[in-house]
């Protein structure tokens, strides 16, 4: 196989970072091998080789690797421009949807076309996306979160087969199961990031894997911890601190967009917050989420370009 160099761009949304490849222009034979090699946090792509600097909150340029590779094809003959998105994860698997990835897609498409509105074709459906006038933030329509056990999916026998999994024990955590394009388990904990015994005191790499692989989740699940910092009953939206252990990354990421929507949907379902708008605070920044009673959720937050470079198509 030929080992040609593939042009890549690197972007991140609240620290959830992705390599972007123009799939229409570039032929990467084995996408899984490409993602496994270049996303590796110890041996993968190093932005400093391409002049990236860690100049802002959440910027992962001081770390090697990435949370995935977005293979994108732009179809400019449509109005608004369509972008076909495929996310290949660090373990070589393909994710049906990624909220922060979709925000990066919108910014990448803006950088190429100058447009501010796009339709993004994901395996979870077509999603409308907009970028702000200065292109520093993007909003994605995220579809309607579902607790339907057939659609999360959740697998349980007998009398529970048709019931949503809401606030129930699974492998040591008390979780609510929701699909926001991909399956999520959400566990609420007491105490936010400011509390020394709060959310950051939990050993997520230890508690998440048994839930991520639990039999009740036949396709696996991303595992989120969330703490209600402000319930939204006063002025302003609810605020939640969040951490996510991601399927496909098999570790904690600095932010997860579908997870942020899942956390807010679960908090609403459990009556923990007021109103349909909320702010989620993953380690990598801040996301604004809306989950109305019916209809699609939205996800808004910052997006930034880190560097441009080339990487071998057939890494060994
Ligand atoms: N980080 C992504 C989620 C990727 C989903 C993936 N980890 C899976 O379910 O396999 C986000 O911002 O929504």
UniProtKB/TrEMBL annotation:
Q: From the UniProt record, report the name of the gene that encodes this protein.
A: dapF
A Pfam family (short name) is DAP_epimerase
Q: What is its main location?
A: cytoplasm
Q: What does this protein do?
A: Catalyzes the stereoinversion of LL-2,6-diaminopimelate (L,L-DAP) to meso-diaminopimelate (meso-DAP), a precursor of L-lysine.
Q: Which GO terms describe its molecular function?
A: diaminopimelate epimerase activity
Q: How does it assemble?
A: Homodimer.
Q: Which GO terms describe its biological process?
A: lysine biosynthetic process via diaminopimelate
Pathway membership: Amino-acid biosynthesis; L-lysine biosynthesis via DAP pathway; DL-2,6-diaminopimelate from LL-2,6-diaminopimelate: step 1/1
Q: Where in the cell is it found?
A: Cytoplasm
What is the name of this protein? Diaminopimelate epimerase
Q: Which InterPro entries does this UniProt record tie to the protein?
A: DAP_epimerase_DapF
- Catalytic residues, per the record, are 98 (proton donor), 256 (proton acceptor)
Catalytic activity line of the entry: (2S,6S)-2,6-diaminopimelate = meso-2,6-diaminopimelate
- Keywords assigned: Amino-acid biosynthesis, Cytoplasm, Isomerase, Lysine biosynthesis
Tell me which GO cellular component terms the UniProt record holds: cytosol
- EC number(s) on record? 5.1.1.7
